[in-house]
C-alpha cells in the first residue's frame, strides 16, 4: 500500500493518530457500537469508547 508524503508529515504520534482515526472512522460505519467495533479490532469496548471520544467520533443518544 503506497502512502502519500502528506500522510508522513509530523511525528510518529501524529502519523499513528491520523491512521488510527481513519481506521476507526471507516470501521465505525460497519460496526456502529463500541462492543461490535471492539470485538472486530480485538480490544475492550472501553478502549474503543475512549478512542471514539478522543477523536470526536462518538455519537451520543439523540445525535444523528
Describe the structure.
- It comes from Salmonella enterica subsp. enterica serovar Montevideo str. S5-403.
- Its main location: cytoplasm.
- There is one protein chain.
- With 64 residues, this protein is mainly α.
- The protein has a domain at 29-55.
- The chain has three helices and no strands.
- It starts with 11 loop residues before the first helix and ends in a 10-residue tail after the last helix.
Explain the layout of strands and helices.
Blueprint: H1 12-30, H2 34-41, H3 45-54
Subcellular location: Cytoplasm
GO cellular component, one term: cytoplasm
GO molecular function, one term: DNA binding
Q: Kindly state the number of beta strands.
A: 0
What class, by secondary structure content?
A: mainly alpha
Instruction: Kindly provide the radius of gyration, computed on alpha-carbon positions and rounded to a whole number of angstroms.
Output: 13 Å
Mean pLDDT: 87
Shape: elongated
Secondary structure: helix percent: 55-70%
Number of helices: 3
How many angstroms does the end-to-end distance come to? 33 Å
The low-pLDDT segments are none
Series of secondary-structure elements, N-terminal to C-terminal: HHH
Beta content? under 5%
- Give a quick account of the main beta sheet: strands, pairing sense, barrel closure: none
Amino acid at each position: 500500500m503506497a502512502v502519500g508524503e502528506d500522510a508522513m508529515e509530523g511525528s510518529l504520534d501524529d502519523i499513528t493518530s491520523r491512521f488510527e482515526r481513519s481506521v476507526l472512522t471507516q470501521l465505525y460505519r460497519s460496526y456502529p457500537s463500541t462492543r461490535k467495533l471492539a470485538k472486530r479490532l480485538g480490544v475492550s469496548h472501553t478502549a474503543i469508547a475512549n478512542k471514539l471520544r478522543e477523536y470526536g467520533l462518538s455519537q451520543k443518544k439523540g445525535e444523528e
